[in-house]
UniProtKB/TrEMBL annotation:
RNA polymerase sigma factor 70 region 4 type domain segment(s): 121-172
MF terms (GO), sorted A to Z: DNA binding; sigma factor activity
SUPFAM superfamilies registered for this protein in UniProt: Sigma2 domain of RNA polymerase sigma factors, Sigma3 and sigma4 domains of RNA polymerase sigma factors
PANTHER family found in the cross-reference section: RNA POLYMERASE ECF-TYPE SIGMA FACTO, RNA POLYMERASE SIGMA FACTOR
Listed GO biological process terms: DNA-templated transcription initiation
Record-given protein name: Sigma-70 region 2
Family to which the UniProt record says this protein belongs: Belongs to the sigma-70 factor family. ECF subfamily.
Domain RNA polymerase sigma-70 region, first and last residues per copy: 26-91
Organism: Mediterraneibacter gnavus CAG:126
Keywords: Sigma factor, Transcription, Transcription regulation
Length: 184
């Protein structure tokens, strides 16, 4: 009897050779993971579903570029992150056009609003991190990737991943510490 890993490696190799059924089985196996990662990145159900759908298509079209079958999950995560970046860029360009009209409408009421005290929980604190810290933290602590896998996925050196993780953790500690101090 073969192990799950051996079966998955065989499916990956078939998918690389162009077997769409094998690719479908792989996506089915990883769909929950893909959705969770997309949702952590987009923070919106519909956007996450769009990103996963585009990732599945791009993955299918690019599967022949996968050199090491044992790195399928890392590779598909890289495709997902790149797809999510593309979606974010498109959304930002659309929003920037709409924002100019909205900004002028809200300019008169902005001075009347009283700033509220924000209460940070861990999820909120993570969402406020810059992408270069947030994404490695999500990949490390929510996906269980190693530093080397994160480096490969993001196409950056391992040393940068370690630095981003450290700086991101420090920013999280600071944000959560400030929240605690405000609540006391």
């Amino acid at each position: 009897m073969m192990s799950k890993d051996t079966d998955e490696i065989k499916l990956i190799k078939k998918a690389i050779r162009g077997n769409s059924t094998a690719y479908g089985y792989l996506i089915e196996k990883h769909r929950t993971y893909l959705y969770k990662m997309a949702f952590l990145y987009t923070k919106n159900e519909q956007d996450a579903l769009d990103v996963v759908g585009d990732t599945v298509l791009k993955g299918y079209l690019q599967i022949k570029t996968l050199k090491n079958a044992s790195l399928f999950q890392t590779w598909i995560t890289r495709v997902l992150i790149n797809t999510a970046h593309d979606h974010r860029r498109k959304a930002l360009s659309t929003l920037s056009q709409e924002d100019s009209a909205i900004d002028s409408a809200h300019a008169s009421t902005a001075n009347q609003q009283i700033p509220s005290v924000e209460h940070f929980d861990l999820q909120t604190a993570i969402e406020t991190l810059p992408d270069k810290y947030r994404i490695p933290i999500l990949l490390k602590y929510f996906s269980g990737m190693t530093v080397d896998e994160i480096a490969w996925t993001l196409s950056i050196p391992s040393g940068s991943v370690k630095a981003y993780l450290s700086r991101g953790r420090n920013e999280l500690k600071q944000k959560l510490k400030e929240d605690y101090l405000y609540e006391s």
